[in-house]
Amino acid sequence: MAAATTQTLPLSSIYPINTLMELTLNNNNSKEVTTGTIYCTDEVSNTIVLKKSLVHTTLTSEITVINAAVVTDRRIITPAAADEKEGEKTVLPNVSRRMVEERERRAIKLMEESFSHVNQQASPEGQKIFDKLLKACNEVCWRGESIIVLGEIRVDPPYTSNDCVLIGKGGGLDGHSLERVKNIVNAAAVK
Q: What is the rounded CA–CA span in Å between residue 3 and residue 172?
């Protein structure tokens, strides 16, 4: 069956998921035949994703992305043959809309949090120092162009160890914490 005659149907109808198919491709006027299980399709990019089992290798499968426009012919191989030959009859997991929405909310929250760690007024060196301190101390924020570490240590521009000062006297942090921040600032400035 020629693929050009059914282009009005969605790709998911033409190439059903979990179907073992043989596709004939027209690559630069040469015919190429490939076989695999339809893993998914994408209407926007007009692509088909094939999954093939690999034998005698540590890899489990090979994924091939094919532009649907180069498919000139397709043949469905029976599901029984797929189970016996390829062993690729894969059941895709159920997707819960609630779980997807929750993942999206978490991703947006993390993105907004990471944007709050960027200071447009700070120099690139200052942003680099901030990122290193954030990785080491977790509780770091910007106050103007100064970096506040654990709410009690301030690092002022030009962000050297000499610019680190203890600002909170009764918060529990001491000279050891200040020295640790100075060491992190020195290490970040060297790299």
A: 72
Residue 97, Cβ density class (10 Å: 0-12 exposed, 13-18 middle, ≥19 buried)? exposed
DSSP string, the chain: -BGGGGTTS-HHHHS-TT-EEEEEEEETTEEEEEEEEEEEEETTTTEEEEEEE-SSSS--EEEEEEEGGGEEEEEEPPHHHIIIII---PPPPP--HHHHHHHHHHHHHHHHHHHHT--TTS-HHHHHHHHHHHHHHS-EEEETTEEEETTTEEE-TT--GGGEEE--SSSS--HHHHHHHHHHHHHHHH-
Quick one: how far is CA 76 from the chain centroid? Answer: 33
Q: What is the pTM of this model?
A: 0.48
- Per-residue model confidence as pLDDT tens digits over 103-147: 999 999 999 988 889 999 999 999 999 999 999 988 999 999 999
Q: Which of 12-16, 35-39, 92-96, 171-175 has the lowest mean pLDDT?
A: 171-175
The span from the CA of 146 to the CA of 156, in Å, is: 5
Question: In what order do the strands lie in the sheet containing 140-143?
Answer: 140-143, 146-149, 153-155, 164-166
